[in-house]
Amino acid sequence: MKVAVIGASGQLGGELCRVGDALGFEILALTHHDIEIRDEQNSVTVLRDLKPDCVINCAAFVDVENSENNIKRVFDINALGAYYVARACKELNAHHVFISTNFVFDGKIPKSQSYNEDDAANPINIYGLSKWTGEQLVQQVYMCHSEACRLPRSSFGEGGKNLLIVRVSSLFGPLGPRGKKGTFIHRILREAQVGHKISLIQDQWMSPTYAPDAARIILKLVESSQTGLFHVANSGHCSWYELGQHALNRNQYQEKIEPVSHKDFPSKVIRPVNTGFNLKKIEDFLGERVRPWQEAVDDYLRIII
Question: Which class is 184-204+237-275+292-304 in CATH?
Answer without folding.
Answer: alpha beta
